[in-house]
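Progress against Task 2.4 (sequence-to-structure conversion) is shown through the following example record, which the project officer requested during the mid-term review.
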Amino acid sequence: MTTLIKGLTTPPMLNSLGPRQNFPFPFQNTSHCPARASLEVIKGAFAAYPRRRREKNTYRNRFVPCTHSWSIFRPGLPDMSDMPARLIVFYLPQYHPIPENDQWWGKGFTEWTNVTGTRPLFYGHYQPHLPADLGFYDLRVPEVREAQAAMAQKYGIYGFCYYHYWFNGRQLLQRPFAEVLASGRPDFPFCLCWANENWARARDGYEGEVLLAQTYSHEDDLAHIRMLLPAFRDLRYIRIDGKPLFLVYRTDLLPDPRRTAEIWRGEAVRARIGDLFLAGVESWGQDIRPAEIGFDGTVEFAPDWRSAGYPRFRRKRYALLRKIGVIPRAYIDHNVFDYQLLVDRMLKRPKPAHKRFLGVTPSWDNTPRRWQNANILHGTTPQRYEAWLRTVIRRTRERYSGDERIIFINAWNEWGEGCHLEPDHRWGHGYLEATRRALEEERDPKAQDES
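Structure tokens generated for the chain above:
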């Protein structure tokens, strides 16, 4: 018997469960609620378990959300009971070579290939973004993934949202997450976002050259969800009221999203996982009405370029200056926007009738990926990001409660888009420290009084 908290011990059966095994309890996991554990909770769970075995047909579609945090059983998971919101950051796995990228871009290509070849294009343009503490890492190395999770947790990040690449049964860049799932390490919450766009040669500006196309079918929907079930069963998987949270980056590309959602939910129920929480990402200016497509909510994706205004020096009054060469060529070849203007306009977006998880971004500059028509946010600083995050935390706390207090940050490690919380040589831990300050300063006053 292992003591987890004073007066509460773990039954021997719990000690025998590995990191990838599910507790055989008749309720589903929830990732964010106060940990008010008692011995009666465990006794009640084990007492009810044989009943479920006898009446499995009756219980098949009945799932009662757990009212206690799994942190009482898994002390390695972050305790967010006193935090105003759960911060989830998008996570890019393209930091290891794969055969497809070797074929398309050259031997040994990773995201670092783009990053290191970038140079400033105009006065005050911050490039290249070069990593500090973690260096030019390889995500095949377990110690790197452990260090990322430890750093994220230290500064108040609740979990990672791994981009997941599925092309009609074929996966790309799957190794880092597959090893996270198989090993149980790092012991850090996660969810998945299906990046369901075509894999295209955008680096050279040829948007029409598709390297790997997406094809959709209901048979593939079934195969896809079955492949995801082991991840949904993992105790680290992020849930909302017991439902695994799964994101789709481009719901507008799904030919029949409502039927896809039905297939996914039905298979999850048959697998004894229960219902899913499906969220569409508001990327590419999508106006998603989740109820109409069988989804539960949306994720605000920052930056929302509809809120960015006009690029600098693109208005007609600058035509002569562009023509005689006074304005640097970079302002003509690329789109340079003001960061603070985008922040102000995104904060003025009206509240929708459905659940929308708000989003922020520390910065954006995808010139490493694009030689032409890149988007650049100018004037980004940790202080401006912190102010934006504090406002979004406050609004999230006012609008939602419990598991629905979620904010998405874009991103943890999108170095090729100049969009990362990971430390770099210019700002160091500045954006991470800003994240932690925003969380601490916007904590629920009741939670602060209790502590």
